[in-house]
Amino acid sequence: LPESTLLQAVTNTQVIDGFFVKRTMDIKESAGYLALLTKGLERLYQAQSVREVFARQLMQVRGLSGEKAAAVVDRYSTPASLLAAYDACATAKEQEMLLSTIKCGRLQRNLGPALSRTLYQLYCSHSPLS
């Protein structure tokens, strides 16, 4: 792999994709950096339950408000419980629509098929989301 190709990939990752790229001298320094980063994340999130982190994760999806995330988490309190519900579905269509009838907010409206499909793709797809 030419060095120019590698440098272009690093630049694209930082500028286009918005990621921070940490450059290290060797694998030992990389491992040390990852250990330090892991400890920092553990301290940051140690007081949060899986349910809280799951709700925050759900709210990163476009169109999924706090009320909608709360409704999903009321039914499936962890990602594992949601995945188990997907596994229990008989067909892919049933999986896609699993969350569509969850009632959300003050008016108790359905979550809807579009968000249900998006969440199904997020949690069950093995390929990049479109």
From TrEMBL:
Its EC number is 3.1.22.-. Its cofactor is Mg(2+). Keywords: DNA damage, DNA recombination, DNA repair, Endonuclease, Hydrolase, Magnesium, Metal-binding, Nuclease, Nucleus. The keyword GTP-binding does not apply. One of its GO terms (biological process) is DNA catabolic process. It is an enzyme of class 3 (hydrolase). Gene3D superfamilies: Crossover junction endonuclease EME1, DNA-binding domain. GO terms for molecular function: crossover junction DNA endonuclease activity; DNA binding; metal ion binding. One of its GO terms (cellular component) is nucleus. It is found in: Nucleus. It comes from the Eukaryota. Its main location: nucleus. InterPro entries: EME1/EME2_C, Mus81. Interacts with EME1 to form a DNA structure-specific endonuclease with substrate preference for branched DNA structures with a 5'-end at the branch nick. Typical substrates include 3'-flap structures, D-loops, replication forks and nicked Holliday junctions. May be required in mitosis for the processing of stalled or collapsed replication fork intermediates. May be required in meiosis for the repair of meiosis-specific double strand breaks subsequent to single-end invasion (SEI). Interacts with EME1. Belongs to the XPF family. This is Crossover junction endonuclease MUS81. It comes from Mus musculus. The lineage of its organism: Eukaryota, Metazoa, Chordata, Craniata, Vertebrata.
